[in-house]
Specification:
41% helix; alpha/beta; Rossmann fold; 6-stranded mixed beta sheet
C-alpha cells in the first residue's frame, strides 16, 4: 500500500490527561496547556495549510477542539475510524484503579497501547489496527490528520513498517507535528529561545 505524505497532530492535553485518567472513547476537554499546544501546532502548520490539503479529524471532542485551533478555522472532515481505541471497562480509571480491580493488568501491560488494547470488553488491537488500515488505504494525496496518541502510534507505525512492540514504544508528544513520508517520520516542534 502506497501512503501519501501525512501531517499527524495529536490533540492537546486534556483534563483527564492531566489527571492520569484513561480516556479511550470517553470525553474530556482541553486544558489551558492543551489549547496552547494546539496554538503551537497552528503556527507549525501555517505554511502547510496554504496548499489546502484535505484535513481529517477524529469525532472525539478533544480532537475537534484541537483541530479548530490547530487548523486555524479551515474546514475538516470527521472520520469515525480516527477515534481513539475503545478501552472497555478501564475507561475513566487511573492505572492504580485498574491494578486494584484487575491485579496484574496494568503491570503486565506497561505501555499505554498494550493496556488499552488488553482492556476487558475493549476494542482490542486487531480491530483497532484494521480500522486504521482501512482509513490509510483510502488516502490519495498529502493529508492532515488530527486524532489521538494511541491511534497515532499505530498509524505512524503502519506507515513506517513497525511491529506492535515498536509502535507501543513511539513517543506520544502533544503540541508537535509528526510528518510521515516515504516510510519515515520526522517531528516538527517550535524552537524555544531563551
Amino acid at each position: 500500500m502506497t501512503i501519501p505524505k501525512i501531517w499527524f497532530l495529536r490533540h492537546g492535553q486534556t483534563e483527564w490527561n492531566a489527571q492520569g485518567r484513561i480516556q479511550g472513547q470517553l470525553e474530556s476537554d482541553l486544558t489551558r496547556l492543551g489549547r496552547e499546544q494546539a496554538r503551537q501546532q497552528a503556527r507549525l502548520m501555517a505554511s502547510v495549510l496554504e496548499a489546502s490539503p484535505p484535513c481529517f479529524v477524529s469525532p472525539m471532542r478533544r480532537a475537534r477542539q484541537t483541530a479548530k485551533i490547530a487548523l486555524s478555522g479551515r474546514p475538516f472532515a470527521v472520520d469515525t475510524r480516527l477515534a481513539e481505541v475503545q478501552a472497555g471497562l478501564i475507561q475513566g480509571m487511573t492505572r492504580p484503579e485498574v491494578e486494584t480491580r484487575w491485579p496484574g493488568l496494568s503491570t503486565n501491560n506497561p505501555t499505554g497501547l498494550d493496556l488499552f488494547c488488553e482492556a476487558p470488553e475493549g476494542e482490542g488491537f486487531a480491530a483497532f489496527e484494521a480500522r486504521i488500515q482501512s482509513f490509510l488505504a483510502e488516502l490519495r494525496e498529502p493529508t492532515v490528520i488530527v486524532a489521538h496518541g494511541l491511534l497515532g502510534q499505530v498509524l505512524r507505525g503502519l506507515v513506517c513498517g513497525l511491529d506492535r512492540a515498536a509502535m507501543a514504544a513511539l513517543p506520544n508528544e502533544q503540541g508537535c507535528i509528526y510528518v510521515l513520508e516515504d516510510g519515515r517520520e520526522t517531528v516538527l516542534k517550535e524552537t524555544v529561545t531563551v
